[in-house]
Amino acid sequence: MAQPITVIAKNFINLLYPIHCAACRSAIDPMTRTGLCNICETKIKRNPKPYCPSCGRSVTSVDDICEECKITRFAFDRAWSACLYEGVLKELIQQFKYKGKLSLSSVLCDTMTGFIKDNKNIIEGTDLITFVPLYNDWLNEREYNQSGILASAISREFMIPIVKPLEKSARTKRQNELPRAERLTNLTGVFKVRDKGSLNGSSILLVDDVMTTGATLSECAKALKEAGAKEVRCITLARGM
Ligand SMILES: [Zn+2]
Ligand SMILES: [Zn+2]
Question: Domain 44-239, what architecture?
Answer without folding.
Answer: 3-Layer(aba) Sandwich (3.40)
